[in-house]
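wait is this the right file?? whatever heres the structure
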C-alpha cells in the first residue's frame, strides 16, 4: 500500500509540474536546432525548418494575409519575453511572433516532414534560419 501511495504521489508531482506537456516545452524555448542537408537550421518543436525573409526589416514582419498562409509565423504567447538572440515582435494584427537576431521566423507550407528545407531560396528572398 505504501509503495502504491508513493507511486501515486510521484505521478501527481510529474503531472502537476507539467513535465509531460509539449506546451511547456514550447514556452521554454521558441525553437531548436536540427541537422539537415543544408546544415544546421532552426526548427519549431515539431522539428520543422524555420525561415526568414529578406523582405522583413529587423524587428518587423511584412508577411501577412496570403503570405502568412503560405509562410506561417512562429507565434509567441502574449506574455513571451526576449532572451539572448530571441526577441518578440508585434505583427500587424497585434499578435506576437518570435524573431531570431531580429529576423521574424516562419514555417513553410510545402515542408511536409522534419528535415525538409524546400523553402530555402524560394523567390530568392526566403532562407532557412541558421543558428
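ok assuming it is, sequence goes like this
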Amino acid at each position: 500500500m505504501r509503495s502504491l501511495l508513493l507511486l501515486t504521489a510521484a505521478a501527481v508531482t510529474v503531472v502537476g509540474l507539467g513535465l509531460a506537456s509539449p506546451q511547456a516545452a514550447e514556452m521554454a524555448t521558441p525553437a531548436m536546432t536540427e541537422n539537415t542537408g543544408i546544415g544546421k537550421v532552426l526548427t519549431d518543436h515539431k522539428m520543422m525548418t524555420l525561415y526568414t525573409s529578406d523582405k522583413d526589416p529587423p524587428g518587423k514582419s511584412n508577411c501577412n494575409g496570403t503570405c502568412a498562409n503560405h509562410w506561417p509565423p512562429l507565434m509567441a504567447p502574449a506574455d513571451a519575453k526576449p532572451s539572448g538572440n530571441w526577441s518578440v515582435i508585434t505583427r500587424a494584427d497585434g499578435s506576437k511572433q518570435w524573431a531570431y537576431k531580429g529576423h521574424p521566423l516562419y514555417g513553410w507550407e510545402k515542408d511536409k516532414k522534419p528535415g525538409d528545407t524546400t523553402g530555402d531560396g524560394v523567390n530568392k528572398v526566403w532562407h532557412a534560419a541558421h543558428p
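Residues 1-26 form one domain. so i think its the right one actually
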